[in-house]
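Task card 7
Instruction: Convert sequence to structure tokens.
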Amino acid sequence: MKLSVIIVNYNSAALTKACIESILSHPQPSSIEIIVVDNGSQDSGASFLRADFPDVTFIINKENRGLAAAVNQAVRTAAGDYFLLLNPDIVVLDDAISQLVAFMDANQKVGVSGGKLLSPNGQLQYSCFRFYKPLTVIFRRTWLGKTRWGQRENARFLMQDFDHAQVRDVDWLMGSCLMLRADAVKEVGGMDERFFLYFEDVDWCRRFWKAGWRVTWVPQARFSHFHQRSSRKHALFGLLSNWAAREHIRSAVKYFSKYGIT
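Output:
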């Protein structure tokens, strides 16, 4: 098996359906499997997906186990030389998957790669980053990001000094679209399940680097991403009242507890 595509679905059956259809609408490697983990969805979408895609492997969880745990479930059953993690709100464009597979075949020391993510209007979405500093979270989540210091740190974090047109090794890649070498995952291990949501991708990429595997941005592989930052809140009250924002902060605390503040 050349490639295992992994999608974690949570109350997003319509998006997952569009994602799978976009995969199937383009030529893919000769041997490919698609694995969907339904992570305790409260709707009946998983049943409809199973009826629409009888060749897709489904793993059904009775409760939401968190993104990392769901990904690890799929990884344990996946048979591919490469694993491609896609969020349900990703649409594959042209030969993006084949581009990533060819890149991984040609670059044996790359453990993780990711393509260029575009908004539906074609605008670039920042999806390759430098590692977080503690103040990054504050600047990204409060009005302090509008200060001179905040703008400077956000530009560093988002790699705004980079034209995003060239293949480049980066600190980490957004987990919405990641291709991973199966042999590297065996060495590094799966996602850290202590992260229920957020920072699991940062942590994973950091562990790949520590084990000697490269993490590489491949902009020739293009994907459309219907991304909304549900954790983005600038007002303090809004920040505290938003579950996603609170979970982002909790995960940040776990991350810096694990790695320190450097």
